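We include the pair:
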Amino acid sequence: MSEQYDVIVIGAGPAGYVAAIRCAQLGFNVACIDDYLDEQGQPSPGGTCLNIGCIPSKALLESSHHYQQAEKQFAEHGIRIGQLVLDLATMQNRKQKVVRDLTGGIQSLFKANQIAFYAGRGTLKQNNRVEVIDHDNNSTTLNAEHVILASGSRPAELPFAPFDGKQVVDSTGGLAFDSVPQRLGIIGAGVIGLELGSVWQRLGAEVIVLEAQERFLPDADPAIAKQASKLLGQQGLDIRLGSNVESVNTDKTVQVAYTDGQGSQHLEFDKLIVAVGRRPNSEALCAGDLALTTDQRGFVQVDDHYRTNLDRVYAVGDLIPGPMLAHKGMEEGMAVAEQIAGQFAEVDYDNIPLVIYTHPEIAWTGRSEQQLKEAGIDYTSGQFPFSANGRARAAGETDGLIKVLADAHTDRVLGVHMIGPGCSELIGQAVIARAFGASSEDLALTMFAHPTLSETLHEAMLDVAGRAIHRAPSRKKRP
């Protein structure tokens, strides 16, 4: 006899495990299925983000930043050390411990919320039956009133650069090198390419990033993208825009042929990371007699309530269109659980924070200046540099700025864009402001602690009306 549940969630990444926990909080009997195994062959819920994405990359970014500080910046603070030694094995072990602690925490949360966890691959069948094939090839059939699909995504592969797990790798392989490559190539100057490039450049690799687009970070505000390109270039990241890779061959080295504005080019690397985006894991989610509707790119099509074309079957996270971000998936996981329970819930897709964890960090929410111009929306703007912020000066972290865009008629904050120290945290203030429909004046009239980095946001809001205090007057007319 098969097990019966109110809700079955296929996938235990950020969208899936959050959906499962919220369903359990709402009183549903819940099961969650996930097939990921860690390096020891043990079940490891958490999806790409916790296991091989967001968390391990941030651990290595943190460690490599400390290494770079010790190498180049400690002396400025009066800290002198002897010979600097990189212990990459210890750095990688620390990364894995961080991952194990967090994935183990999810299993504890499942137990605390009485969620049944099945380690294996789940396949949806007729009448909301789900077959689970575990890692010993044993089969179990579960039944559910509702099924939530949250099977996540995987790195996109280029046909002329197949992953071999050794010389040509995806983001997972790019986090697991056991030695620092002397020459590292990266295809793609998006979030993943820039973050992984930063890690290995800090640790001593010569890094060249090949990007097909002519514009750097086209989704970011142009002022922020320009500053980011300058600062990352100064750090040693060689970012080559308008570079269309045509072939990749491996022998003792990785040979990459590409074309740019000057014609045909050729480079050789020790390792090559392909970071050209991700694809939804929508294949083989359903049995052959079920026709789950997807678009040409494989994204599952859903309505405003995350319902698929199949009765009482929902999809969230990287499976559906939109930014492939863990926090976006988490919000959808909570929203779909509450909608199944008959509650009102929605995700504000116009106020999603986006962060690139380079150093300095890059973050934004809302519309860019270019988007406002294209939409014909009248706006005002203000900005303030971290170089004029006391806390940034004290920390020696003065690169970057914060830029605010507000509606010219209502003064409502339409977008906030920043590059600088702590921006992954500072952007949260902007998200909250926009969530409550704040005007730039609202934040200009709010007291911020001194000395803090957040005063840079305060001054940028003041600058919308030409009232910034800790910088020379702008050309704006002051009231």
In short: Residues 88-112 form the longest helix (25 residues). The mean pLDDT is 96.
